[in-house]
Amino acid sequence: MPFDFNTAVRKRYVTLPVPRDFILSSGAPKPQILWVGCSDSFIIETETLDVLPEEIFVHRNLGSILHNRDLSSESALDWCLDLLKVNHIVVCGHYDCALIRENDANEVHGWHKDVTRLHRTTAEYLSETNKNLSEEEHDRILEEIYVLAETEWIRNQSNVEKAMNERGLQIHAFVYDKVQNRCVRLVESKMVNGTK
Question: Which residues does the record give as Zn(2+) binding sites (predicted)?
Answer without folding.
Answer: 38, 40, 94, 97
